[in-house]
Design goal:
The protein is mostly helical. Helix 8 runs antiparallel to helix 9.
């Protein structure tokens, strides 16, 4: 028999009566089981009570901490609003100019600068004023790194300002690779990289030349342009790069002044950032007059050696770069010109390139090349002449072979037709001098084959005339051109090569005709 765990189920009435009835109705073992069950229920209820009280206690503690934090924040907000109200009243109320800004004004002005710096930076980047953008970034970074600054808006603007640094560097790299940019723009970009990334003049020179090497390779390999435009752009990039190196890295010959890189760097480090940046369309807010001296007098400083490069080093590096460009032009240029099918089209491209070379071959270019490379760099002789000589020879050789193949095919056709004529021209090949008969018989045989000979000679003449007309486009020279002497030399070589190839063509045709006649005569002798 099992004792119920519910006391009311076991007995009712007063406590003594319940106990008496419990002992009257149940055995000792059942009473003990009831006791154990009852004690277990009591312990369970106690544990549940402890857990409930503990959880509620933690909630109460957390609520108390939250209320305390809210009270503290509310107090700080109230104090900040009170300070802001005081500052606004001070600004709006007329008063004599202070010789030293108050702490509140200084705090407000620095906060305003940090808040508006991303907007200023993006405007400078959009206007491609990369040097000013780099200077303003360094000013904001100095304010961020200053341990004494406890500006309320500082933490949330630090990531934004940091991301703009990458945009400034990317803009500088794009300007450096743009061959149409002015030397001053390129110098500003190089100076910005020197200040932001700590690159020295040697690294900057290498970066400029490498970026222009990539530009030349892209110009030679772009698929959406003509060969004429690609080679013209290549010349323009090379000329612009040499002039940029002369202006930026080489000291001036007249007075020994440094190049644009060091003059721009000197100007950027001498003047304050506030004065340098907030000019020419970018005006400073009125609150900037309360900035502390550490901000208004901030000047960018160098974190690397920026000694001017020696002329020997610049000349060595520039010549290595020009040699690599020549190799690239030779490789890619031969591929470009390999698609030119005629000498007329090749002459058109050559004429356009000569015009470009003539426009570049000024006294300014000669001075730049002598100063940077140590000698005058002849664009046509050193860069383009061999390309056109090689391609002209290739076109002439292919045209000669094409004429030979076409004439050979026509001769084969004429021989096949002649061999099928019974008693006509087909018998003339195996007839000796004693078997030709009288003059009338010989005339009749000649007359039957004459149309084939005439057609064949006319075809050869027409093909050669077309070919010589095409050659005439490439062999002409411009008497006022500075490249006239070299073009005349190339034309003479071309004429000599052409004479040799035409003579070789006639010899090959003669040998082929003789072999076919001999072959046909042998076939006729074998025929019974």
């Amino acid at each position: 028999m099992t004792v119920s765990t519910n006391p009311q189920g076991l007995c009712g009435g007063t406590d003594h009566e319940e106990v008496d009835r419990l002992f009257e109705k149940h055995s000792i073992s059942e009473i003990k089981e009831y006791e154990r069950t009852l004690r277990g229920n009591i312990e369970t209820k106690k544990e549940e009570l402890r857990q409930t009280v503990g959880e509620r206690y933690r909630d109460v503690i957390n609520a108390a901490d939250t209320i305390s934090t809210m009270a503290k924040c509310s107090h700080e907000i109230a104090e900040s609003l009170s300070q802001l109200t005081t500052v606004c009243r001070e600004i709006s109320s007329p008063r004599p100019k202070q010789t030293k800004p108050s702490t509140n004004n200084s705090l407000l002005s620095q906060t305003n600068l940090i808040v508006e710096t991303p907007m200023f930076l993006w405007k400078l980047v959009d206007d491609k004023q990369v040097l000013k953008a780099g200077q303003l970034y360094l000013l904001s970074q100095s304010m961020i790194d200053n341990p004494t600054n406890h500006l309320p808006s500082l933490p949330q603007h630090v990531p934004t300002i940091g991301r703009i640094r990458l945009s400034i560097i990317q803009l500088a790299e794009r300007i450096i690779s743009d061959w149409s940019a002015t030397s001053q723009s390129v110098a500003d970009s190089l100076t910005s990289l020197l200040l932001l990334e700590g690159k020295g003049p040697r690294q900057l020179l290498s970066q400029l030349l490498l970026s222009r090497k990539v530009s030349i390779h892209n110009a030679l390999t772009q698929l959406s342009s003509t060969s004429k435009h690609q080679l013209n752009e290549t010349i323009s990039i090379l000329v612009a790069t040499i002039e940029n190196v002369k202006d930026i890295f080489k000291p001036r010959v007249d007075g020994g002044w440094p190049g644009l890189l060091h003059s721009t760097l000197g100007a950027a480090t001498r003047g304050t950032v506030i004065e340098s940046v907030f000019t020419d369309g970018l005006s400073a807010p009125s609150s900037f007059r309360y900035l502390p001296d550490g901000v208004t007098n901030f000047r960018v400083s160098l974190n690397c050696l920026a000694e001017p490069l020696s002329s020997v080093y610049v000349e060595e590096v520039a010549n290595e770069w020009v040699e690599s460009v020549q190799d690239d032009v030779t490789t890619q240029g031969n591929q470009l010109l390999s698609f030119i099918p005629s000498l007329k089209a090749l002459a058109s491209i050559r004429g356009a390139l000569i015009s470009t070379v003539e426009s570049c071959a000024s006294s300014e270019w000669r001075g730049a090349s002598e100063l940077v490379l140590g000698s005058t760099f002849n664009l046509w002789e050193s860069l383009l002449r061999d390309l056109f000589v090689h391609r002209s020879a290739g076109i002439i050789d292919s045209r000669i072979n094409k004429i030979f193949d076409d004439v050979k095919e026509e001769i084969e056709t004429e021989f096949m037709e002649a061999s099928e004529v019974s008693g006509g021209g087909g018998s003339i090949w195996n007839a000796d001098s004693g078997a030709l008969g009288d003059a009338t018989d010989l005339y009749m045989r000649y007359k039957s084959f004459s149309p084939s000979i005439i057609r064949l000679c006319r075809s050869i003449s027409e093909r050669l005339n077309d070919f010589l007309e095409d050659v005439g486009h490439i062999s002409g020279t411009n008497p006022v051109s500075t490249t006239a002497s070299t073009l005349s030399q190339d034309s003479n070589k071309l004429t000599q090569s052409l004479s040799r190839l035409v003579g070789l063509l006639v010899s090959r045709l003669d040998a082929f005709i003789s072999s076919r006649i001999e072959s046909l005569r042998c076939d006729k002798q074998k025929d019974p």
